[in-house]
Design brief:
The protein is built from 12 helices and 10 strands. By secondary structure, the chain is α/β, with parallel strands linked by helices.
């Protein structure tokens, strides 16, 4: 069934973190995660399979940093098509007809002029290159995520809408401050929601952040602005360094205890971001089953 139609009838579940799981399998800070779609395809498959077995309705491709600017840092800027297409193919092979594949599109890591060196046209072309490769590989939708710059997010949405026929999700990263929740670039929730929807997003939302408690408040503020579908993917808390390892403190049980609040706040899609695992998703699914918005 069409994703957007299903969202009118039920809450759907995204998967959890990809980076956290790759690191558990040995990805180091100097590695390019997207290259693992080729060099460690079996590991990427096993991560997808773990989330599907946990009960996820939607799995995201291992392509968050798969744009030309980000890949250039690993001298892989000429492999955009290969790595994104393969990333979508791996997820598509496992998802089958009953699950959705979301093509993950993260920030470029560059600033638009005049703050940075990249023109809107250049950024558009970078996003279009990645997004068309994700559609070619079998993605069912595009998920533009962890955005801080509203204009960059709108350019990515435009690239997706003009170069594919896929539904588009766009989520932003908000942090609390004296003036309420805002992105790193100073965009508040109302402006973000309106800007993303006016830009053409079918679904809007928030991901990453400081944990599930704050995510509930962000969803409430978003729902006060719009009736559009909302996706929320909170981190498993604020990362802590323990024994040289990055640890996320929120357990599957803790996140599950608050997951129904995400739905009651207005979320149509629920998943996890950094620090979450198949165990988190499995627990959250049990907690939200039967919940009504």
């Amino acid at each position: 069934m069409d994703l957007l139609r299903r969202l009118k009838e039920q809450v759907l579940i995204f998967d959890g973190a990809m980076g956290t799981m790759l690191q558990a399998y040995g990805l180091s800070s100097g590695d390019c995660p997207e290259e693992w779609n080729v060099t460690h395809a079996d590991i990427v498959r096993s991560i997808h399979q773990g989330y599907l077995e946990a009960g996820s309705d939607v799995i995201e491709t291992n392509t968050f940093g798969g744009n030309r600017f980000k890949l250039a840092k690993s001298q892989m800027q000429d492999r955009v098509i290969e790595l994104n297409t393969r990333g979508a193919e791996l997820a598509r092979e496992l998802a089958g007809p009953d699950h959705y594949v979301a093509g993950s599109v993260g920030p470029t890591g560059e600033l638009l002029k005049p703050l940075g060196r990249v023109s809107p046209r250049e950024m558009y072309e970078v996003f279009a290159e990645q997004i068309t490769a994700l559609e070619e590989g079998g993605a069912d939708l595009i998920c533009i995520e962890t955005m801080s710059d509203l204009e960059e997010a709108r350019i990515a949405i435009k690239a997706a809408r003009e170069n594919t026929k896929l539904p588009v999700i766009a989520t932003m990263l908000f942090e609390p401050g004296l003036r309420g929740f805002r992105t790193m670039m100073g965009t508040d929730i109302r402006r973000a929601v309106n800007g993303l929807l006016e830009g053409g997003a079918n679904v809007i939302g928030t991901n990453c952040g400081r944990g599930i408690e704050e995510a509930i408040g962000i969803v409430q503020e978003m729902r006060a602005v719009t009736d559009a579908p909302i996706l929320v993917q909170p981190n498993a808390g604020v990362p802590q360094l323990q024994g040289g390892r990055t640890v996320f403190p929120q357990t599957p049980e803790f996140m599950a205890s608050l997951a129904p609040e995400l739905v009651r706040a207005g979320a149509n899609l629920v998943g996890g971001c950094c620090g979450t695992t198949p165990a988190h998703i499995r627990a959250m699914i049990k907690a939200v089953r039967g919940c009504r918005r």
